[in-house]
Amino acid sequence: MGEITALLETANTYHEEGDLAPALENFQQAYDLAQEADDKLNSAKALNGLGGVHFDLGLGKEALEFFNQSLELGKEIGDKSVQATAMNSLGLFHAQNGRNQDALEFYAQAIPLFQELDDKENEGWALSNAGMAHSNLGEKETALEFYEKSLVVYQSTDDRQAVGGMLNNIGKTYSAMGEREKAIDYMTQALAIREETDDLDGKATTLNNIGGVYADMGDKRKALDYFLQTVPMLEELDDKVALITTLTNVAASFEGIGEKRKAVPFKQRAKKLGKIMKQEAKKAKKMQRELLKSMGE
User: Fold this and answer.
1) Burial of 121 (0-12, 13-18, 19+ CB in 10 A)
2) Fewest C-beta atoms under 10 Å: which of 10, 108, 200, 278?
């Protein structure tokens, strides 16, 4: 079974990096080999991976079928890890399609299985996903409870980046609840961990979030300081979506303190990036169509 495991690991790496074509190819090869070997465990893992890639390709119907097949196979062989992973995937699928209540039903099944398996990483992830679903439903206090549970779980692991992520989520939730001092406290803790772990993406996100809280408090100068710190990080990450938002926030902050001339170049740059993104989106759609064509979809 070594070849199948290697294919699955390679596929997961490609998928995490957003390289969908080779991810799809490796998951499919792993599935075909697992089927030939009557290896139902790895067949179920490959099906879950195929579901994830199809979902990222915008093929929701196919993705759902793969996730459900993975879950059914997991039940057939009695593998709780496969079942929990498939349920978490189904939860994410429904949440990203706006069906947060349905998502919560799957998370509610996945979480106790991960707990039974003592799988702390995935337990923390599923708890965080449930928190996000409750947040999307406007249930901020319940969301906070799940984020806090996730934080406790992650704190029992070596995953410091995940700890930083949960602290940031808790801070964002307090901000949405209007408790801005608590929000800044948690975000500041998150920022320290993200600096410690060299998590540039996370650091930029949290700096932006802190800036947003100060802007909501009416402290435009302090907000501006945080937004300006974020700009070079997002440039390094080449995160155009976040950069456009931050440039817009910088411009609004300059205007808020009466320095409208300084706002102009940031507005212009945000507009230019928006045009570039539209061009890139067209290219991405073309590549996706070519990939789908090669798949026979």
Assistant:
1) middle
2) 278
